[in-house]
Amino acid sequence: MKTALKILRIAAAALALLIAGTVADEHARAHVPAPERQALLARGKALYAARRVACHGQAMRSVRLPDGTLSPPLDKPGFQFFFWVMPAGMERTVREKIEAGNAAMPQFSKLLSPTDIQALALLVREVNQGRTALP
Ligand code: HEM
């Protein structure tokens, strides 16, 4: 019984270390140098401001689209959680969603440059991490 508990404790500690290492690595990979970050954010904000009425509304909280459906909010607990634990992976996911679009959302890979899309994804990340507010 004692041995089983010992093994369980060691396994839990190993798992905690693995998670901590993965999260630290994710944060390191998501790091954008300060001057570059400011430039990208400004670009993301300008792009979002130009499209927000049709996009996901003021403060990224969703908007009713012309077909009567609601666009999803982009500032929400699900996003906040994943941007917190795996910022690099989540930013990539958001970038891919912006690139691909869907029936209601334009395929932005055909409309915007990769840097523009990266700027928008960084904006979504920063808003969800509570580091920036929308204009
Ligand atoms: C440049 C501005 C935009 C950004 C940054 C953006 C970003 C995103 C992201 C990250 C998602 C995924 C949301 C999720 O998984 O919960 C999404 C989904 C969606 N967006 Fe946008 N979007 C933009 C513009 C638009 C526009 C112009 C429209 C409509 C005309 C639109 C309509 C939608 C809809 C309907 C979805 C849900 C897609 C689905 O159910 O698969 N978006 N958008």
Overview of this structure, please?
The chain is mostly helical. It has one domain: Cytochrome Bc1 Complex, Chain D, domain 2. Helix content is 62%, strand content 0%. It has 5 helices and no strands. It has helices at residues 2-29, 34-51, 77-85, 87-100, 114-128. The longest helix is centred in the N-terminal third of the chain and has 28 residues, at 2-29. The chain is elongated, with a radius of gyration of 19 Å. It starts with a helix and ends in a 7-residue tail after the last helix. Bound molecules: protoporphyrin IX containing FE. Protoporphyrin IX containing FE (HEM) binds next to helix 2, helix 4 and helix 5. Protoporphyrin IX containing FE (HEM) is lined by residues 47-48, 51, 54-56, 65, 71-72, 74, 94, 97-98, 102, 104-106, 120, 124.
Question: What structural class is derived from the secondary structure elements?
Answer: mainly alpha
Beta-strand percentage range: under 5%
Q: Please tally the β strands and state the result.
A: 0
Ligands, ions, cofactors: protoporphyrin IX containing FE
Percentage of residues in helical conformation: 55-70%
CATH C-level class: Mainly Alpha
Summarize the helix and strand pattern as letters. Answer: HHHHH
* CATH architecture assignment: Orthogonal Bundle
> What is the terminal separation in angstroms?
59 Å
Per DSSP, the total helix count is 5
CATH topology: Cytochrome Bc1 Complex, Chain D, domain 2
Report the mean per-residue pLDDT as an integer: 90
